[in-house]
Amino acid sequence: MTTDPTTGPTTDPTVATADGTTSATSDSTAETRQERFERGIEVLNRVDGESGQRVIDALADVNPELGHQVVAWGFGEIYDRPGLSPRDRQLVTLGMLTALGGCEPQLDVHINAALNVGLTRDEIAEALLHTAVYCGMPKAINATFVAKKVFGERRLLKDS
């Protein structure tokens, strides 16, 4: 299958190889662009719920293709792979977003997602503490303040 930038994927029975040549493919299970998006939406809703949909909606008027790719590729292709559980994927995501820094809006979404897929408040706090060793105190503190906001919204803060 190839992709035409204006019309999306086609069912061309050849694929490009690493050396730039093409070869025949026998993959009869190839998904269309719309099918990947629909599968991605199911995963997005299951994991991120309303907060994930809000991100996609916010992109619609400025870069709808980025929103499409977040859903179709990020969730329909990558997040839905069988190699890691959704819980483990969220732990990795929290660590990466913390390490990158400046990703607080995405951390908000993914801390909610981590809670949605079964991580506890204490496990999230421990994961963010662990990031301090590898990414530094300022990034770990910033991420923890995002967690505090989410925990407060979800009434998960511990009593003082």
Layout of secondary structure:
Layout: E1 2-4, E2 8-10, E3 14-16, E4 22-24, H1 33-47, H2 49-59, H3 64-79, H4 86-100, H5 104-116, H6 121-135, H7 137-153
Helix pairs in contact: 1-2, 1-3, 2-3, 4-5, 4-6, 4-7, 5-7, 6-7
Distance between the amino and carboxyl termini = 58 Å
Oligomer: single chain
* Rg of Cα set: 19 Å
Contiguous low-pLDDT stretches (5 residues minimum) are: 1-26
Strand order of the largest sheet: 1-2
Helix content: 55-70%
- Summed over residues and divided by their number, the pLDDT gives a mean of 86
By secondary-structure content and strand pairing, the structural class works out as: mainly alpha
Percent strand: 5-15%
> Could you give the order of the helices and strands?
EEEEHHHHHHH
Global morphology = globular
How would you describe this structure to a colleague?
- The protein is mainly alpha-helical and 160 residues long.
- It is 64% helix and 8% strand.
- The protein has 7 helices and 4 strands.
- The chain has a two-stranded antiparallel ribbon with strand order 1-2. A two-stranded antiparallel ribbon has the order 3-4.
- A hairpin with a 3-residue loop joins strand 1 and strand 2 (8-10).
- Helix 1 packs across helix 2 (49-59), helix 4 (86-100) packs across helix 6 (121-135) and helix 4 crosses helix 7.
- It is globular, with a radius of gyration of 19 Å.
- The protein starts with a strand and ends in a 7-residue tail after the last helix.
- 23% of the residues are buried.
